[in-house]
Amino acid sequence: MMTIENLKEIKEKARPILEERLEQEGKTEVRDGNIVLKGDYYKKQVRIALRNCEIIRPESIDEYIALDGYSALGKMLTEMTPGEVISAMKDANLRGRGGAGFPAGRKWEEAFKYNSDKKYIICNADEGDPGAFMDRSILEGDPHSVLEGMAIAGYAVGADQGFIYVRAEYPVAVKRLKAAIAKAKEYGLLGNNILGTDFSFDIELRLGAGAFVCGEGTALMESIEGKRGMPRTKIHRTAHKGLWQKPTIINNVETLANVPVIFQRGVEWFRSIGTEKSPGTKVFALVGKVKEAGLVEVPMGMSLREIVFDIGGGVAEDRAIKAVQTGGPSGGCIPAELLDTPVDFESLGAIGSIMGSGGMVVMDETDCMVDIARFFLDFTVDESCGKCVPCREGTKRMLEILERITEGNGTEEDIERMESLSETISSASLCGLGQTASNPVTSTLHYFREEYEAHIRDKKCPAGSCQALLEYYITEACIGCTKCARNCPVSCIDGKVKERHVIDTSRCIKCGNCMAVCPVGAVIKR
Amino acid sequence: MEFKFDWEENKEKIEEFKIFIKENMDKEGALMPVLQEAQGKFGYLPVEILEMTSKELRIPLAEIYGVATFYSQFSFIPKGENNISVCLGTACYVKGAEKILEEIEKVLDIKCGGTTPDLKFSITPTRCIGACGLAPVININEDIHGRLKVEDIKGLIEKYR
According to CATH, what is the number of the domain B82-160? Predict the structure, then answer.
């Protein structure tokens, strides 16, 4: 039987071994008494959820313990009552990192106060936003922090069973989680009578099956219950009636990874990071047209500009930045002039985007905002579960309009039509997917309306990205080599040898072959 | 298209699958893990296996069908040994991809998206694969075949039989 003393012994034994290994590898340094990753990319970052990622070996429970792992759980089981844990969580004001930002402590309290023979903790690891991989990195790099966070939640609300709902598309994460759960059970840190106390908590893995909507809390519960993953009507809070109609706490991976540290270092410390209303940090997947793409974890309240330029190194190929998209298919495009907006739940909401789970896509002048909106709508249409008519039918109609516009067939009324559709879809859908589905459209319409108008009125794509609105054109630089004409799949290029060639744009299918084969770069898009 | 599920050939897998069901049937919400096991084991969800699942788990087949169709991970037909992807991008389209597709459908006697009963071939429509210069193009497994004419199809498919 593992006791707190054993845990301390393991830590004392494992810590020097870990330090020695890190010393040899030389990619870490000690900052304020903590082991952190070296390098400019990490200098401005504050890593809490990612504290152990790339530092410890994810397969090694000893290395996790060496860096104070499971000490928070141990301390709590012997020194704190569940009520005290919850009040500390409320004081820390850790807000849900899955995107909506609901305070975890308040959620826990709801379930804590509700009497029931059985309660559940769910870890939502169904990370589905295109271009987001924060949760995957935590699960793969530091699985025990999530397990410990779940056990703490279990102790606080009085649950003895946890589920991790993880995407089947993350095979490495699944493997690491399985191994981590087995190891934690072997060490007596999960299972019956944890650390010799009368608290028991077990965790089971459940795999997703490729449905984005299952990231929504109640849809996820339906899926665990073995049903179609469709969101429920929100008559009850899931903290009262959730999985199998029992009080259920569902928290996102990153939220849970934050929990153990709050108890290791204290509420005061946690609140000293970030902003008053959004304490702590947030992990972002910084991708798109940025020089150094990757995962960044920064204190809440840092400006978008600092994240993109000071950490990400600015826009790739030194083009001008046009917008930053946050929140994935539920978020919006933030224009360059608002880059000084601090990143926290309220500020992003106020400018028509959302924090979301942490996707952050940088866009430059060659990205067409109408096309971006179309891309996200295409995604939503595919992933709408079909339960609510406004979402199922409305998103489809909206996509049709956007396709029409990007193909140069839009009309003046289309903008109004979309605005009206957006309002209906967001006010009449049951779940977050539908309620936010129109965000990519409304935010681009708000900030980049002239781009929509250019597509509709002038039949031009200012960013030069919508294929249908471009034409290929042969400039005077043409040397008349005939290569383009020979490679044109629809034979729409005419011209004699050593004379300038001409593209018949009415027959051109815009495949771009001519541009690719031209030896002198005489073919341009305009 | 109905696929004959070979009980003899899958005997061992079926036994393993039955054991998996036994081990998991008392678990609440066992259906998803069981379907995932079946998909992984057999490569698709044969109706015979779904019937077996229905009996063992005591869940109506209709309900199982509802769940299985909801998630994109599950498929009801196996993919063929040779998968033919037909490019339906614009360049291929104007160069007669439709005719090529029709010919493939005729030769294999299945519709686009289907699989032949002997599991040798399946046809999948794809978006532009970026080989417009070779239009019309089809991919058979990893091989690209371009500048195709309708009369080439029969011989080409023969090579993969």
Answer: 3.40.30.10
